[in-house]
Amino acid sequence: MTYLLPFLSLCLVAVFLCLTMPGRAMAESIDGDAARCKQLIDYYDRYSAGRSAHSDGRRNMTRIAAAIDCERGDYARGIAEMEELLESRKLRIPAIPSAANPR
């Protein structure tokens, strides 16, 4: 019976690691997508707003819809909307920041 205790504790540790590791990978992915959404929206806010009366800047409906999608957790849709908006405004799409080289 005493030889069974180390085996059971090892099994419990293995089960715990198997259950928590996928969650961490998913959380890192979500954090990366959320950061990408914020990056694209901030980039648009900085470079699209002009001083003319006809500049919509932050009031752009596509930008607002993308921000709402990102807030609700639909990052793929928000990112796609922002990339399309940046391309339509002839703005270059910023590079995805890497974890090794954060900006």
Please specify the SSE layout and strand pairing.
Blueprint lengths: L3 H45 L12 H11 L3 H14 L15
Structural summary, described in words:
It contains three helices and no strands. The protein is 68% helix and 0% strand. The protein is an all-alpha fold. Mean pLDDT is 76; it is low at 23-28. The chain has a domain at 34-47 and 57-93. The chain has helices at residues 4-48, 61-71, 75-88.
Q: Tell me the span between the first and last alpha carbons.
A: 56 Å
- Low-confidence segments, given as residue ranges, are 23-28
- Quickly give the structural class: mainly alpha
Q: What is the overall silhouette? A: elongated
What would you report as the Rg, rounded to the nearest angstrom? 22 Å
Helix-strand pattern: HHH
Task: Output the number of helix runs.
Answer: 3
Oligomer state of the chains in this structure = single chain
Average pLDDT rating: 76
Strand content: under 5%
Residues in helix, %: 55-70%
Major sheet description: none
β-strand number: 0
Task: Using brief descriptors, characterize the structure shown.
103 residues; mainly alpha; 68% helix; elongated
